[in-house]
Prior knowledge:
Layout: E1 10-17, E2 22-27, E3 31-34, H1 42-45, H2 56-76
Parallel strand pairs: 1-3
Antiparallel strand pairs: 1-2
Amino acid sequence: MQKDIHPKYYPKAQVHCSCGNKFSVGSTKELIETEICFKCHPFYTGKEKIIDTAGRVEKFQKRLAKKQTSVKKTKTK
């Protein structure tokens, strides 16, 4: 490696997840904060978990319900 062009490498950087899990990895950042890790991600846990930020799920469900009612109206005509 050339000197003075690479960022500082932290071989034991701490990762903090919102679920409370903490572990170490190698990184150019000393502290990494994340919302989802391997302890709480649905793919690894096998449990479905909906993370709703700013009511996005409700907005989608309203749009879907509105679309389904309009499709039923057009079929009845």
